[in-house]
Amino acid sequence: RRQRQMCIRDSYDNCLSLGINTVYVHVRPFGDAIYKSDYFPWSKYCTGYIGKDPGYDPLKVMIDEAHARGISFQAWVNPLRCYYEDDAPDVSTTYKTGQWYDTKDGDYIVKVNSYWWLNPAYKEVTDLIANGAAELVSKYDVDGVHIDDYFYPTTEAYFDSIAFNASSYSSLSQFRLDNCSRMVADMYKAVKSHNPTALFGVSAQGNVTNNETQLYADVEKWSKEDGYVDYMAPQIYYGFDNGGQPFEQVVEQWDKMLAGTGKSLIPGLAVYKIGTEDEWAGSGRYEWQNDKEIIKRQILKSQKTSNYGGVILYSYQFIFEPDSNVKTAVNKEIAAFKPLLTQ
User: What is the pLDDT of residue 102?
Assistant: First the structure.
């Protein structure tokens, strides 16, 4: 425990040295918990075995150390993505997800490739997810709850055909969009009911169309209407010269969606791409190698948006522990944008 505590202290000190005032920490990556939960088993990332108690509370340590440094702690959860196929049989049936897996009916929990996923078509499932959000803000001094872009894992009808066929919907797409919206609204309400000052936000894909047609995340609705989010943190992991989704155009699109709502725009920036070839960027394929100040330029552009609430740098590893082949490029980029974060 002492070794782990020293490690998180060092990590937070690194963040402070760069002017970072908020951390988004994964506390439920795969239907599990890096904390003592009534709803989800202990994560295998705590001990190597799913469901095994590590003998201390990692989340409390991480929160206490963050707050001791004046750093805001946002609890990052994946609401729908669950266990790897080899871990699922080891989940106790004292948990709902263990019970649902044990029935193997492809209903509340469904296998897609190598993972099991929760199906948000069912109220019992979204109630579990909302209860998990409520537990975080009621038992821990987190400053907010944050979810990312893992919504529906497939466009195939088999995933939720049982629920869809039993519904009154004629459109599978609208059925899924409404299910995700209900889940997000329930999480928002759960967070606010237990801690009105805690924030709730979504780090959706940067591509608005992909969100709505492939992941069934109605990001326009969540951005424009009340009762869904306090902020949007789209993953705008594109360069300025990206052939399909140029950064400047995308950040303006999100800013426009949030206009007049009072909600913040916190663009996610792709530090992990510094010094690398962007294979799918078309005309911007080599931009991350050739532009030595791309993140600085993106921060400056983001700061000019009407709803600017900061930026998120993805991720810690690629800032402070970069691969040796890009380390020089990363250090040069950090030197360029650090003054913007520490001023």
Answer: 87
